[in-house]
Each structure stands twice: as structure tokens, then as C-alpha cells.
């Protein structure tokens, strides 16, 4: 009886030891020891890649930003003008060749979202004439 | 009486416990899980590729940045432990609007703190392929952040740095930004048309060419029938400006906020002046030198298109 009890205890102790070892190995891997392991990013730990400085230091002065240099958003219904405005003429006097695909002429220039907060759908953001817009 | 636990197993147990203890003590603090909050809460389940949905400020002094932006826009902050450096989430009311991450400035390095622009994308992996196929660079490979989503950092062919984010809970809804929130973004580069083509391939932008612009290209990039950003060619004499993204925060008075920014240690880089929409814009540098824009926008600026 004593022998049986002792044997069971011995088996339990052995299993316990291996369980602890297993935990140690898993913990080792999970903590980044011995391999790439940060979510699925691999290698880096923390908020990798985002902490990039840019540069060199920016100099916004001296070239007259503010005198006709416009970067802001258009209002709804802003005039698009002529497709390819201001560019060199294209082959055979056609529209200028652009590296990008211009929006179709039937699309008026949209504005930014302007619906009220929590208002669900909305925004008077412009839209394509003829109801072709697809607001979220 | 025989000891049921042999010396061997006792040693095994002891060594395993020692192993655990050593791992716990030796593990670098940076290995702590880095959990970013979701972009929106509750989840919107809306995705708006091409929309600027987040910005991270990289700065050498997080407390100073908190003082400045908190004083200027009323932002509050929630700190997140990375174990290695400070990261803080800026809140406009109850909405997270930006992250601030600490990075020490290197003496003599011609680099400066900046805001990193995050643009919504459907598939980060596809975006990376397009970036590489069109002459861009991968600065940080795609990675997952629980609650936030999957993101990566790239440089476009002209060197402007931007990030893409495939949000897991959805993007912010298309609503008018409140004062103190991001409302607009502009890409300033040496060739706006080439840049427009590059970003169009990634985000599927519709590209509009405003009629009243003279000289350099000023293009408008749109998705979902909303203007998302502008791509602008820098003047030839803007020697000191490398291609970069510049994000604008909505304000009620650019003049007042610019003055307040100066009182908080910032600098006015471009004085308030009327822009395309009729309201005022300005460019400010925070005390560490990171530039950002101010943009006035009233409901009157949101003019409904006559159908």
C-alpha cells in the first residue's frame, strides 16, 4: 500500500516537473528569447518602424507660401475646370498626358466629409452629378 | 522510508523554477505587449481606403509635447507602457486622435521630429507590393497590433514617409472633424503628378485637377466621393523642403491658435492666410520642431453641390 502510494506520488512529481519545464520553454519562446516574436511582426519588439524621424529640418520660409500656394480642401461643387488644366498638350493636340488617371469629366470635385458628429450618414461632401456618388 | 520524490526530480523541478525566474528577470522590458487602442470605439466596421485615419508624433520629449498640444487643442493623454520608451495616446474628448512616441534626438543628425501620417488601406500586403513595384521603400514591414489592426511604414519614390493601416475595428466615420481634430492632409513634393499616380495605385484615388491654380500642380485626391488629401508640387525655390506629408487640425480661428502656439513655445512657419476653400490655413512647428497645419472650416465652407 505504501509502495503504491509512493509510486503514484513519484509519477505525479515527474509529470509536474515536465509541466514546469514545458511552461519554461513556452515562456522562453513567447518572451522573445531565441527567435522572432512580436505578434507576427518578427524581430522587432515594441512599436517598430513608426519611430522614424524625417528630415532634414524643414524650412517653410522664404518662398512665399501664402501668396497663391494652396493646399487646402475644396468646397463642394468646386470648379474642376478643364481636364488636364495647365499641362502641356498631349499628342496630336489632345488632352495632356498625365501619369495618373484623371477623374472622369462627369465627376465634380468633392469636398471633405461635413456631416455632423454622430449623424450617421451624411456630409455635404460634394458628389457626382446625376446622383452617381456613393457616400458611405 | 523511501522519499517518493527522487533527488533527480527534485533537481529537475528546481532547475525549471530557476529557468522561469531567470527568464522573468532577464526579459527585456521592451518585450511587454504593446497594445494600441482601436481607432474607433465602438467599432465602426467602416473602411475608407485613402482616408487619413491616424497620426503619430515622433518627438524627443513626450511631456513637452503633451504640454504644448494639450494647451493648444485641449487634448488629454493616456500613457501606454512600451517598457522601452514613452508612448501616449492623445484624446480629443473621448476620441483617440493621435499617438506621441518618444525618440531621443541625435546630436548633429540633420533630422527632425515629425508627424507620421497613417492612411487607411484595405490590404497592407497588397499596398506593400504596389509600393515596391513603383519605386517606394518599405521602412517597416507589415505588423499586427491587437485592437488597432495591421500597419506598415513606407517611403514614396520621392522620399515622403507615410504609413498604411488596415484597421481591425473599422475607420472613423466620414463626419466633419471637430475643432482640435485632424481635418485635412497635404502631400508636398517635387512632382505632384507623379506622386498622385503612385498613391492612386495604392489607394484607388480619384484625382482632380482644380481649375484656378496657376503654375505648380495642386491636385485633389478623393475616395468614397470625399476629398481626402491634396498633392502639391513645391515651388522651385522651396529648397529647404523635402517631400513630406503635412496634416492639418481644424480650428475656429487660425490667427488665434497660431498666436497661442507661439505663447506655448511653438513657431509660426507659415502665417495664417486664405486658402482654396476661403478659410485660413497656417503652418506651425511645435517646440521640438514638428510641423503641422491649422485649417479653419465652417459649415458654410461645406457647400452642397447643386444636383
Q: Helices and strands in order, then pairings?
A:
The complex is a heterodimer of chains A (136) and B (307).
Chain A (H helix, E strand, L loop, with lengths): L1 H29 L106
Chain B lengths: L6 H20 L25 E8 L2 H12 L2 E6 L4 E7 L2 E8 L11 E7 L3 H10 L3 E9 L3 E7 L5 E7 L14 E8 L2 H12 L2 E3 L9 E6 L2 E8 L10 E8 L2 H10 L3 E8 L5 E6 L5 E6 L11
Parallel strand pairs in B: 1-4, 5-8, 9-12, 13-16
Antiparallel strand pairs in B: 1-5, 2-3, 3-4, 6-7, 7-8, 9-13, 10-11, 11-12, 14-15, 15-16
Provide structural commentary.
The complex is a heterodimer of chains A (136) and B (307). Chain A has 136 residues and is an all-alpha fold. Helices cover 21% and strands 0% of the residues of chain A. Chain A contains one helix and no strands. Chain B has an eight-stranded mixed β-sheet, with helices on one face. In chain B, helix 3 (124-133) runs antiparallel to helix 4 (192-203). Chain B is built from five helices and 16 strands. Chain B has a single domain, classed as Roll (2,3-Dihydroxybiphenyl 1,2-Dioxygenase, domain 1). Chain B has helices at residues 7-26, 62-73, 124-133, 192-203, 254-263; strands spanning 52-59, 76-81, 86-92, 95-102, 114-120, 137-145, 149-155, 161-167, 182-189, 206-208, 218-223, 226-233, 244-251, 267-274, 280-285, 291-296. The termini of chain B are far apart. The longest helix of chain B is centred in the N-terminal third of the chain and has 20 residues, at 7-26. Chain B has 307 residues and is an alpha+beta fold. Classes of the chains: A mainly alpha (136), B alpha+beta (307). The interface between A and B is large, with 99 and 121 residues.
Amino acid at each position: 500500500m505504501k509502495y503504491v502510494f509512493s509510486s503514484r506520488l513519484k509519477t505525479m512529481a515527474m509529470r509536474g516537473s515536465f509541466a514546469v519545464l514545458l511552461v519554461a520553454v513556452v515562456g522562453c519562446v513567447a518572451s522573445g528569447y531565441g527567435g522572432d516574436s512580436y505578434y507576427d511582426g518578427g524581430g522587432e519588439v515594441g512599436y517598430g518602424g513608426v519611430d522614424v524621424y524625417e528630415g532634414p529640418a524643414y524650412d517653410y520660409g522664404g518662398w512665399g507660401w501664402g501668396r497663391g500656394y494652396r493646399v487646402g480642401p475644396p468646397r463642394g461643387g468646386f470648379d474642376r475646370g478643364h481636364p488636364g488644366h495647365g499641362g502641356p498638350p498631349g499628342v496630336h493636340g489632345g488632352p495632356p498626358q498625365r501619369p495618373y488617371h484623371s477623374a472622369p469629366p462627369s465627376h465634380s470635385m468633392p469636398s471633405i466629409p461635413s456631416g455632423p458628429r454622430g449623424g450617421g450618414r451624411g456630409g455635404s461632401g460634394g458628389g457626382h452629378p446625376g446622383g452617381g456618388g456613393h457616400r458611405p | 522510508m523511501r522519499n517518493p520524490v527522487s533527488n533527480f526530480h527534485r533537481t529537475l523541478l528546481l532547475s525549471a523554477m530557476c529557468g522561469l525566474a531567470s527568464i522573468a528577470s532577464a526579459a527585456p522590458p521592451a518585450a511587454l505587449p504593446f497594445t494600441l487602442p482601436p481607432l474607433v470605439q465602438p467599432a465602426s466596421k467602416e473602411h475608407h481606403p485613402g482616408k487619413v485615419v491616424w497620426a503619430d508624433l515622433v518627438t524627443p520629449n513626450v511631456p513637452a509635447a503633451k504640454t504644448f498640444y494639450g494647451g493648444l487643442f485641449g487634448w488629454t493623454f493616456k500613457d501606454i507602457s512600451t517598457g522601452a520608451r514613452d508612448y501616449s495616446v492623445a484624446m480629443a474628448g473621448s476620441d483617440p486622435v493621435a499617438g506621441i512616441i518618444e525618440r531621443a534626438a541625435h546630436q548633429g543628425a540633420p533630422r527632425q521630429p515629425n508627424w507620421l501620417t497613417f492612411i487607411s488601406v484595405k490590404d497592407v500586403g497588397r499596398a506593400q507590393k504596389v509600393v515596391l513595384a513603383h519605386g517606394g521603400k518599405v521602412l517597416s514591414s507589415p505588423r499586427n497590433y491587437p485592437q488597432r489592426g495591421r500597419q506598415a511604414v513606407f517611403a514614396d519614390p520621392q522620399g515622403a514617409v507615410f504609413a498604411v493601416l488596415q484597421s481591425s475595428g473599422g475607420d472613423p466615420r466620414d463626419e466633419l472633424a471637430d475643432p482640435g481634430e485632424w481635418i485635412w492632409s497635404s502631400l508636398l513634393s517635387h512632382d505632384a503628378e507623379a506622386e498622385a499616380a503612385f498613391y492612386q495605385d495604392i489607394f484607388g484615388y480619384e484625382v482632380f485637377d482644380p481649375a484656378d491654380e496657376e503654375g505648380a500642380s495642386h491636385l485633389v485626391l478623393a475616395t468614397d466621393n470625399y476629398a481626402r488629401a491634396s498633392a502639391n508640387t513645391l515651388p522651385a525655390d522651396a529648397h529647404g523642403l523635402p517631400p513630406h506629408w503635412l496634416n492639418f487640425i481644424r480650428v475656429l480661428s487660425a490667427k488665434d491658435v497660431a498666436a497661442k502656439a507661439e505663447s506655448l513655445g511653438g513657431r509660426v512657419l507659415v502665417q495664417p492666410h486664405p486658402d482654396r476653400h476661403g478659410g485660413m490655413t497656417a503652418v506651425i512647428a511645435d517646440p521640438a520642431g514638428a510641423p503641422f497645419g491649422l485649417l479653419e472650416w465652417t459649415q458654410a465652407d461645406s457647400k452642397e453641390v447643386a444636383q
